[in-house]
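User: Protein folding is very new to me. Would you mind checking the protein record under this note? It all follows right here:
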Amino acid sequence: MLPRPTPKSPLRQRLRSFVARHTLLERALARYRTLRIRREHPLGIVPDVPKRVIVEPTNACNLKCAYCGNKDMLRPRTNLDLGLYERLLDQMVELGIPRITLHTVGEPTLHPRIADMVRMATERERIVTISTNGTRLCDEDLARALVAAGPHLLNISADAADDETLGKTRDGLKAAVIVEGLRTLRRLRAEVGPVGHSPWGAVKLPTITMTCVVTPLFTPAVEKQFFETYAPLVDDFLFHVANNHADYVADRRFEPNGVLPLTLRDRVYKALRHTCHYPWDALFLLSDGTMSVCRFDFDARIRIGRFGESTIQELWRSDAMNSLRRAHMNMDFQDWPQCESCTATWYENRHEHYVFTRRLMAQHGVSVARPGWLSEDPLGTSAARQRERGG
């Protein structure tokens, strides 16, 4: 949405990297870019199509994690209709949208046809990511079907490797469940994992990554045990921090401590806020057919229409989407109050998370087997589609 100049020298590249990994500085410059660009582009610079689609197979979850808003959701628990999903995939192929993620606010492995959903997407040569809390991967039949379907990335979430810490954040979950699931995945990948065109070349899929929400409970001792336990079982790590899930999580005790008190820090970052990237990046198909634009939209509050009644392209260019984009460009959320106090917009910094992840891995002597931090279009699918159209 907000283009940045291409680095022209190693010094400039290092400077950009320094800015990108310091959230406060990055926010200040991003706000400046927003104010500058909106003079000529009041809706921002809108891509022709979304860069990816995030799909909610189900909004049901079998855990009540301490920092997650799912447990406070009012929306009825539903499973996505496969016919509607198939229509989505076909439109993604037609439009050249390269990536699909099967996860939002629920646990995707609770959908009875989740392996079929993965396979339907991989057969259409989309880059497929699925994220799970790992609790159902001990089910041999489910794990085998998932692996055989060939997702490119399979993310498993855990915040610790000891039962005491993990139980506090993950609703009493035992670390042995995660470990058993990971071992099952590794074994099945070797047995039935398909070899296909992937960002890592000709390798057996899926690439297995461990995602971790860093909280004040992630002490040096917890950190050490975390890497000792999980590093032999995964290909990469993705660390990030807790936020208030678009104001769903009132108890923010799991957000990281900082130099400034939380209330003062919120005021500083809110004053420097800029656009959330999702209105220019992705569409979110919820399990009841609602199309949203937010990964924390537990009750479909950021509603822009219904898929099936409208196409991807119609929704992407709809009045509701343009209204949301205008609100973010102007930082005026009168019509979209759900966005007003979402701390993900203030604090989320992917580059900072990447640098933090790599630093922790280096400190514990852990190397990357396959990088799980993929680009927007890792196989050039979108670019190839544009060439076919003569773009």
